[in-house]
Amino acid sequence: MTDSSDDLARSKERSVRSFVLRAGRMTRGQQNAWDRLWPHYGLSLADGPVDRERVFGRHAPLNLEIGFGMGQSLAEMAEAAPEQDFIGVEVHKPGCGALLMEMEARGLDNIRLYRADALDVLTEAIPEAALDRALILFPDPWPKKKHHKRRLIQPDFVATLHRYIRPGGLLHIATDWEPYAEHILEVINEAPGYCNLSQDGTTVPRPADRPLTKFEKRGEARGHGVADMLFERQ
Q: Residue 11: its pLDDT value, please?
């Protein structure tokens, strides 16, 4: 299998990226899980578009989580919905190792992982209109004004993502940073092909299938509200 670093190398050509690769060290457990489990659960851009029958052994509803962090929420969602399949995208290797540990502990076989830039995964690995749902939960808000250009949710990215969600499929975004929520709503409410499922065009109550995350708990402790936004692809 192609080394996951090869997939990340492709994103270096972009002048602006929505992430910075941190040199975080993996724990012994994360490294062990990576060494044993990545060859089976890890996907590579070199493999081309995802063939669900080959990858999952079935054709089931397909979810894509962009930036799953340490993977706790993704594992919980996959465990609660064994009839669905999940693809997680994350650039940080310790997070991939942590998710692999969680998958093994829970006995999950309905998750596959990319260690790559989400834009590369979309344009090189996801067939058009293949996703039933895309999830972007607590993306980096890049709060400083000079860094706003690094925010993942931008008109061009939203337009690209639209191509890979099936008509009637969902885009679910959550953030605990109010200025970023305002930015997200402005971008997507103005983007063609999306319908905000909130009655007033703003946020929705937390969907029952989104687990409470450490980010949410941390935000609540700081007095930050959490904004869930749900859009249907037209």
A: 58
